[in-house]
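User: My advisor, Dr. K., asked me to get a structural model of this assembly before our group meeting. I'm new to this, so sorry if the format is off. These are the inputs:
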Amino acid sequence: MKEKILETMREIAADSDLTLVSHIDDSTVLLESGLDSLGFAILVASLEEKLGYDPFSMMDEPVYPRTLGEFVAVYERFAP
Amino acid sequence: MIKESLDTFLQDIASDRTCLVSPSGVITVRELREAAQQLVKKTPSIKGRAVALCGLTPHELITALVAFDGYARSMLLLPASLSEEVTTMLVNAAGCEWRFDSLKEQPARLNEHKEGCSELQPTTWILATSGTTGTPKLIEHSLETLSRTVKRNVSRGGEYTWGLVYDPFRFAGLQVVLQSLLSGSQLCIPSERDINTQVRYFSDSRVNALSATPSLWRKLLMTEGIHHLPLRQITLGGEIADQGILDALKQIFPQARIIHIYASTEAGAAFAVQDGRAGFPLEWVDGGDAPVHIRISERNHLMLKPAQLPGGEEIHNRIDRDGYLDTQDMVKVEGERVFFLGRASGVINVGGNKVNPEEVENCIREMSDVADVVVFGKKSSMLGQLVVAEVLAAHDGDRTELKKAILQHCRARMENWQVPAMIKFVNTLAENAAGKRERIN
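Assistant: The format is fine. Below is the predicted structure of the whole assembly, which you can bring to the meeting.
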């Protein structure tokens, strides 16, 4: 899951003329990863196409992840 | 003198109260009023004239508003983000006679000069719409139409410090400025644009009231510092507030009063919903305790009749026989609630930024490798909507390369939020029965 997310982040960065920070791990803060908020919204939309679900529209109690680790955990938790 | 102007409202507020906080210092009501009076003294030629305020700093803008409301005939507010070409055009269209680009220098006298008028009238506030269709439109307001939903409780107001996250030249930012000034609250103006830095500054300044779009709130909730803000007042506006973001805010800030405002540059501030639920009560339609007269047209457009409508030709054309303004916002009724669906024109709202699909289509159609294209909004759990383009390629070839070329072409010509977030290649484009392209929202 994490690899798929990272791969999608790289694709979006390339498409959007953005540069990701050189080292990304679980503790990387999403808003400091190099993707802007538009890039981040595109990430969620692209993952929905690839994975078939958008956890952020499925949550009863909305959670907004701060780090990559938290973001991956959200996708794992809602995986069908 | 005019009976009610921004300055006369400030007279009712204790003069030693702090009203502006920024990294460059703290300003009291007295200091703000004195600065405004000095500005008036320095520029007597503005009396009864049409003045353009172009790209001033937030602090300068607020000083100028206090100085010239009730003194100038009209004030045109133009943000620094507009190009010089558009700025000049709008300054001319508004018939401005003087133009400020900074308060440090005397204003420039423009060619157009009307007969002087000695009698002071309430000042017309002229704002530019943020729509992306060609050039912005000018909408005329007054202090009253701009501050309709402002709570003016000066004794309670002193308990609030508002954080400014919007451009104060735009309708949404101006609402925050007026809310804060008219109720004697403090306004905290960050100097940095980075959201983490802004939130840290708000935290240091004990900001306890914030107004932002639902998309910006989602982004704010992803910062660490936001959880430390002692928020008591949370306002959402500028795009549709869904139940998810309202619930998330309620959960994190259980003590805060959470309201979402329906307002637009065209209709002015119309109403505020305070019950923590998306949409608004059906009983507000056609009577009841509605804050403003509300109707739903046969085409499911939201129609409004505020006590006072802004002026200008654009508005005039959208008012029906009974005096209701067509907001161009689509609604649906579900049970006892009215929910917003989006813009009737197909305009896409990307985190508060409006995108006209035709403009994006025209841009992509310029490319010889593209036979045709349709652009529409796709629901986004992060930004409300995203721009999606379905492209009919002119010939077979590498789709990855074509996608890249389209993105580059768009990025060179449009704002980031107008550039399609997704490009899909299709063999036919969807059309509805009337032969008009279907815009799926």
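One thing worth pointing out at the meeting: Chain A is about 50% helix and 0% strand.

User: Perfect, thanks a lot.
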